[in-house]
Amino acid sequence: MLKNDLLLRAARGEETERTPVWLMRQAGRILPEYRALRGRLSGFKELVETPELAAEVTIQPVDALDVDAAIIFSDILVVPEAMGLTYEMVEARGPLFPETIKTAQDVARMRVADPEEHLGYVLEAIRVTKRALNGRVPLIGFAGAPWTILAYMVEGHGSKTFSKARRMLYTNPALAHELLDKITRTTITYLQAQVEAGANIVQVFDSWAGILPPDHYREFSARYIAAICDAMPEGVPVTVFAKGAWFAVSDFAHFNCRTIGLDWNEDPRLVRAAIGYDKTLQGNLDPCALYGSREQVQTATIEMLRRFGPQRHIANLGHGVYPDTDPDNVRVFINTVKEFSTLARQGAI
């Protein structure tokens, strides 16, 4: 039994006594205890691939920030590596794939990964985390959306345009679909295994959704996300977060997901007008708002809460928290969500 199940109740559309709150990329980055641990290791991948350490980092923000959920410390790029395409995490540069997908032969070499065999370290980290949390808060599992994973596998690194990956969609769409199918099948079994290991809710991150035009997004991304949602175990809430793909929200309204994440450029009032109240919304404070004064953070947070309304909302940022953010401002954000939403439910404000 969970001691704090606010997030799950909000995702299911049940009334809650206040708005639950957590932050994307809360595990690490801003916390000095994370940086201290990371400094003792060879690098990011050692942390991700050592279950006890990944569990420790996962729990740090629950202790330090008092958020309403933990999210397992991992990376979306463990999926292409499990499929046979190794990545490196280069300090100050980000992910790098020494080899990339270019041809049909490259796609043929990619396997549909077995989660226990190829991603067992993530599953063990979930099990260790669940034991250590002892029911304090829900644990969020996650994976990257197939399009975002393909973008990295073809491009080989982060990019402003992902022109190599996007070129494939125009010049060899059949090959793109073949790769997307393999990624999707891997992702489905991976997320199912995360749930079996103890994840209470899962999120699909489509970080590069916004660089595709709407017709390509529906053909090369949304359909595969829909397949993932359909394959999740009954009763396990799914959150879809597609950064920059404002045009796809009306499609997500028909998916078997409980929650739709909004980035900071989306107006939840317009989203509600378009899709109604059948879905919970998550988000969407601008991460840069946390650079302001304490009073500015508090004001921005209250404005956000008013735009979303008192129910069917999970408070979060519109993207991951930036690494140079003052942890005290993060606490102002979290505490303001808790205090204002509690008073609003009670009719005190």
TrEMBL record:
Locations listed in the record: Cytoplasm
Keyword Transit peptide assigned: no
Catalytic activity line of the entry: uroporphyrinogen III + 4 H(+) = coproporphyrinogen III + 4 CO2
Enzyme class: lyase
GO cellular component labels: cytosol
Marked site positions, Transition state stabilizer: D75
GO molecular function, one term: uroporphyrinogen decarboxylase activity
One GO biological process term: protoporphyrinogen IX biosynthetic process
Residues where substrate binds: R25, Q26, A27, G28, R29, D75, Y152, S207, H319
Alphabetical UniProt keywords: Cytoplasm, Decarboxylase, Lyase, Porphyrin biosynthesis
PROSITE patterns documented for this protein: UROD_1, UROD_2
Chief place where the protein resides: cytoplasm
Recorded metabolic or biological pathway in which this protein acts: Porphyrin-containing compound metabolism; protoporphyrin-IX biosynthesis; coproporphyrinogen-III from 5-aminolevulinate: step 4/4
UniProt KW Lyase keyword: yes
Span of domain Uroporphyrinogen decarboxylase (URO-D): 20-29, 140-156
EC id: 4.1.1.37
Summary of subunit composition and partner proteins: Homodimer.
NCBIfam families linked to this entry: hemE
Family that this chain belongs to: Belongs to the uroporphyrinogen decarboxylase family.
Function: Catalyzes the decarboxylation of four acetate groups of uroporphyrinogen-III to yield coproporphyrinogen-III.
Protein name: Uroporphyrinogen decarboxylase
The organism of origin for this protein: Hymenobacter aquaticus
